[in-house]
Design brief:
Layout lengths: L5 E5 L6 E5 L9 H29 L2 H33 L4
Antiparallel strand pairs: 1-2
């Protein structure tokens, strides 16, 4: 991003071509990343909850309980990691905005 440079963008709705200074553009958080993160969290957690009792009954023991607790953290870690990376992307782009 250089001060005074321009960028031509076309509107998706009206197909009108506009020219913006680079300093006037800023990034927003991606709704697609939020949808993917929520889908992983909402699908992954019930699947793990369904399979945890089966695994516990089959293998049992304290170590298997700890492994299962670790697996329960996977959807949460993926969800938070996707949102964090999106925030980093937006903040990096907008760093020169202010």
């Amino acid at each position: 991003m250089y001060e005074g440079k321009t960028k031509a963008l076309t509107c998706n709705h009206c197909k009108h071509n506009n020219i913006f200074k680079v300093n006037e553009l800023f990034a927003k958080e991606s709704k697609f990343a939020l949808i993917i993160a929520c889908a992983i969290f909402l699908v992954g957690t019930p699947i793990l909850i369904y399979y945890v009792p089966i695994f516990l009954l089959k293998y049992g023991g304290i170590y298997s309980s700890l492994v299962i607790a670790g697996f329960m953290l996977v959807p949460i870690i993926v969800y938070s990691n996707i949102l964090k990376e999106d925030r980093i992307r937006v903040n990096t782009f907008n760093l020169g905005y202010y």
